Amino acid sequence: MSKIHDNKKVVSSRRSDLYHNRRAVLTTMHGKEVVISPAFRKRLGLRVETPTGLDTDALGTFTGEIARIGTIRETAIAKARLGMTSMGISIGIASEGSYGPHPHIPFIAGGIELMAAVDDDRGIVVCEHLIDDSPVYDHVITAESGDITSFLNRICFPVHAVIVRPHQTDDSDAFIHKGLRTVEALSDAISSAARHSSDNRALVQTDMRAHMNPTRMATVRRLANALSDRLATSCPGCDMPGYGLVDIESGLPCEWCGASSLMILYQVFGCVACDFRERRPRPDGRTHADPSQCPQCNP
Ligand SMILES: [Zn+2]
Ligand SMILES: [Zn+2]
Predict the structure, then answer these.
(1) Is residue 73's pLDDT more than 80?
(2) Which stretch of DSSP H or E encloses residue 192?
(3) For 74, which of 32, 41, 70, 153 could close a Cys bridge (C-beta 3.0–4.6 Å)?
(4) Model's pTM, two decimal places?
(5) How many Å lie between the centroid of ligand 2 and the Cα of residue 126?
């Protein structure tokens, strides 16, 4: 059982020397190096290279032709290792996203983005993730003659590109049109896809590949900043990089009755290499919970 430090004086240190001038490989096919590489170079001095000719789609794709195997964490780590092996570099970075119904809020779309850094010199894997509450992620089903103007306006087409495929087909791999960014290409694709669908309709979806979806690209940028910050933070116990938030503890006392509420009481920080753990109070300084979050006052 590891000892948890409650001492507010425990300080993890920010360091810029942990990865200075080291080489890392970023495995990406969708232009994410534009936002990821500068984050790691600026914050860590890490020299990030992007291999050419790697087929990361073999690990699963957004358009669904190849199902992703494993969790997004496992996929991101496998992707990072693919690049490390191909380039013979001991540090690898990769990111992975998944979009669908929001994990916590009903009836809205959400996305989870995860980025992994694998450091085989130190034997550590450091991950950061974030949840995107307002991704540009949507779809519409239309006949060839249908008017989808309101959908296109909603997703900011053509800034965000779309994918078109037959709505109902036996062969889901066939007749997919990706990365569409002109009205002409879109209308040709809808005609073709509708003809190949048993209900004469086309499925039009946002293309979630980062270089086709600037909203997603901005999320990946935020995540790259967060992961490089984490890699610049060393463990107070063993000095390894990657120290950061690993858990939360709920139970903030209710401001009416003092009972433990569902709201977060502590953030738990931890190390990826040793069992050092530290409780920190909420960053917003809140010490009592709203009674609406209290199981006693609002059962
Ligand atoms: Zn440690
Ligand atoms: Zn209460």
Answers:
(1) yes
(2) helix 183-195
(3) 70
(4) 0.87
(5) 38
